[in-house]
Amino acid sequence: MFMLKPPITRLGGKSRLRNEIIEMIPEHTCYCELFFGAGWVYFGKEPSKVEVINDIDKELINLFRMIKYHAPEIERMLEYEFSGRDIFEEYKNYTVECMTEIHRAVRFLYLISQSFAGKGGNYGYGTNTRPSPHIFYKGVLGDIKERLRNTYVENLSFEKILDKYDRDYTFFFCDPPYFETAGYGFEFEEKEHLLLRDKLKNIKGKFLLTINDHEKTREWYKEFNFKNIEVGYSVSNKNSGRRKYKELIVTNY
User: Fold this and answer.
1) Is 126 exposed, middle or buried (0-12, 13-18, 19+ CB in 10 A)?
2) What is the mean pLDDT of residues 184-208?
3) What value does the mean pLDDT take over residues 98-122?
4) Claim to verify: residue 102 and residue 227 sit in the same structural domain
5) 169 and 249 within one domain
6) Comparing 53 with 230, which gets the higher pLDDT?
7) Is the pLDDT confidence value at 162 over 50?
8) 199/196 Cα distance (integer angstroms)
9) Whose CB has fewer CB within 10 Å in the chain, the N or C terminal residue?
10) Where in the sequence is the domain holding 2, given as residue range(s)?
11) Which CATH number fits the domain that encloses residue 89?
């Protein structure tokens, strides 16, 4: 199977876990991601008959919408760009409301790909790593565009997506912000986690959820099946920034 690489990286992305997750996906007609992020699982699996990707981040969803409809124009605008601190700061300080949707997508793609840890906040540089060059190459978005062609792209809260798309033949992949973990940019505290848990308890379809292994998360999902895994993540080039984290894969099947 040909696995696509997402055009961006995101905090908590499932690049190291996606093969294991894909192997666990049950039979379904409708595939739905509640918290899309970079989309490692979606871009790695075989297309389903019906697919839905959703994220609360308007700029992220605008990026994928614009790739779906205007990939050649995004590539044209980025073709002669390069990785530079001044360019990064210029994009960062643009007034988003005054930009076209295509310009917003270009801005977002540049900031995420050229920033430290893919957070879009600080310019990323190094002495033993090159800049991320892939967004400046013509033709790199073509496969992403094709993959998105028959996909519904949503920008709603997770509970609304669950309400709209839940059927007995729907499979939900849920990768919410991890509990008590900073850096996502959107509030997702215990209240939101419990709302997600309560909604998942009552769905007709099947779900697979990934979450950090914490005494509270174990308690929340104790009535479901879960498996423990260890995943290595890195947020810096130093060895001190490379650690193994315990996670849970939770399913209702």
Assistant:
1) exposed
2) 90
3) 90
4) no
5) yes
6) 53
7) yes
8) 5
9) N
10) 1-56+156-253
11) 1.10.1020.10
